[in-house]
Fold this protein.
Amino acid sequence: MSRPRLLRDTALYAISSMATKLIGALLLPLITRLISPAQYGLIDLLALCGQFGLEMIVLGTDYVIALYYHDEQTDQGQLIGTIMLGRVIFGALVLSIGVIFSQQLARWLATPTAQRGLLIALIGLPFSATVNSWLMILRQAGRALLLVSITVSKVLATALLTVGLLLWLPDPLSAYFLAILLVDGSVAVGLSLAFRSWIRWPDRALTWLILRKGIAFFPRSVYFILMTLIARQILLHWGSLAEVGLYGAANKISYGIWIGITAFSQAWLAYSMAIAKQPDAPQIYARYLERYVVSIGTLVVGLALLAPEALALLTTSAYLPAAPLVGWQALSLMAVGALVIVTTGLNLNKETLIVGRVTVVMGVVNVGLAILLVPWLGGLGVALAAALDQGLVVIVLYHIAQRYHRLPFRGWRISLWLGQIVLAVGVASWLPSNVSWRLLGLKLLILSAYGVGLWISGGLNALQLRAQLQRIWQRRIPETGV
């Protein structure tokens, strides 16, 4: 796989990831003008519960589609039929369990309307799971144009219908999840009818194979959702729904970076394994880690400094207190993306179970840090706990991976750049959350100082900007005739 292939795959994954995650970003400037931070916090909590329920329906089997769709010994029609039957059976099971415990959940949230909104969300889960599976199947079938068209249309329809229902219905929670139910239900039924010729009756042996393989992916799929839910619960216990809403808004602001990180991470795994036998592969791994730290770290710093301005542009003044959280959340996301690179040695040695074990153990550390910091710092404590936890995971797995397969990472130089990034994020979170020209000038000075620090420490050289510009210019010369 060539480097242009890596860039192409990154772009494709970015479009797919952006389309599925764009609903939250699209709705943020609209929904925050219609509801309070407390109402947004309630929606955020129930949306996370819905994601957990979605994973209970899927049970990791979406990964199995990618593994077996092109397998010569697997009948594609039976594979699709088995997946769709599973969505119906496990969807009904999760819906039944949710209905039984919906009253307890509403009591936990201390909101009478939560039960009605939860029931609407539960009804929509099987449809959402079916849509996600069809999109995965279309990706494997190479129907890229159709995939992008459906996803973009779904996002726009959900955003517009959500705003319309929020203006029409008195209960924001019911309006939010009703929009998702109507759109996902329509898309699920439409795709199932349009591609019904692809579906064949499931095979018993294939059914057990899919379940066995899918459940192996389930812990990894549900882990981050579960940790996020626990963090929200801690924040709700020592804080309020309004603080949960501010945390959710800060999370949406950091999604811009997360989309790029997710796309890069998915493409990097395939690329790194493809070039493993090349003589210069270790040097390529090392250079990419340096470029990742400097480029993504610079974006994190810029986002942390300009978080109040972003919140003022996309939300209302009620959400400005979320600004100090944005940088730390973006930093934790950056650490998650770095894991894919620092664990390259483990991937080369097929020792991937270690990653899961360390992640689970450090998840307990994350909960402990949140319990310690939230009573003191509120939502900022949750963001700090996540950043510290993910940073520790990267450090631990970096050293373990180096023992299995030593790669020429320049740890001391990367540590120096990370120190500058963390310092800049810390300063950004300390600044006032209001927006003014004087503060904006100060932030530009801080950003300039950060850039000078990178230049002195060789961070800008890691990006090889001069070589990139020269390459672009050389390609341009034959076209312009210069």
About this structure: The chain has two domains: 1-14+239-482, 34-217. Confidence is low (pLDDT under 50) at residues 475-482. The chain has 20 helices and no strands.
